[in-house]
Amino acid sequence: MNYDIKDKTILVTGANRGIGKAIVESFIEHGAIKVYAAVRQLNSVSSLVEQYSDRIVPIQVDLGDPQSIFAAAQAAPDVQIVINNAGVFQAGTPLAKNAIASVEFQMNINVYGLIYMAQAFAPVLKANGGGVFVQINSVASLKSFSDSATYCASKAAAYSITQALRELLSQQNTLVLSVHPGPIATDMGDAAGMSEVAQTPAFVADGIVKALKAGDFHVFPDPIAQQMGDAYKSFAQNVVEVSSS
User: Fold this and answer.
1) pLDDT below 50 — which residues of the chain?
2) Pairwise CA distance, residues 16 & 41, whole Å
3) DSSP 219
4) Where do the TM regions start and end (predicted)?
5) CB 16 within 8 A of CB 40
6) Strands lying side by side in the sheet with 34-39
7) Rounded CA separation 169/117 (Å)
8) For the chain, which domains are there?
9) Most buried residue, 38, 76, 226, 232, by most Cβ within 10 Å?
């Protein structure tokens, strides 16, 4: 199932910078009629409003606050594409003294936030004909890196949830994408120490656009991600993407 962005209404969490901002800009360039820029602080998207005028609608969403997520779903009943991009990164090994607290912090945003987004917006997408739900995961959801294992654990859990959403939301004609970037030039990428090999956020935005046209589930948008995606391809096609029904 492929999907055309033109004339669609989008909601992007974490729209004020990095990957989220690149997605907003790309989708408008590809013909999206309106984008709900979902952020914690509404004034953080003032530059997008100045650039695109009334095509940008700031809306308050904090993935750590379920009430804000469900309120946003009520305030944006016309959404056809939801892109859950917002997330947190905190480096930590399993042997660190704060390992449990680190996992809990990241699970709260990266996993529980995803679940609340799906619960809140799945009915909205269904009412609008099905649409699309996109989750920004990471190559870290496929391989753990010891220095950031607590983050990797949260992204692996998010990927697992995304697989379940693919199957569940297909029943309401909603296309689900799982996006797995490698190092991207964002604040999070800098915090992870990946600046020297990072690619621009535009790789992720363009990868989503291409995947929507192709009807793909897995998206490996940048060169490093593509290498991992090539290695993972057989398992993805023969295990993950096979319907269990």
Assistant:
1) 189
2) 9
3) E
4) none
5) no
6) 56-60, 34-39, 9-13, 81-84, 132-136, 175-179, 218-219
7) 13
8) 75-240 (3.40.50.720)
9) 38
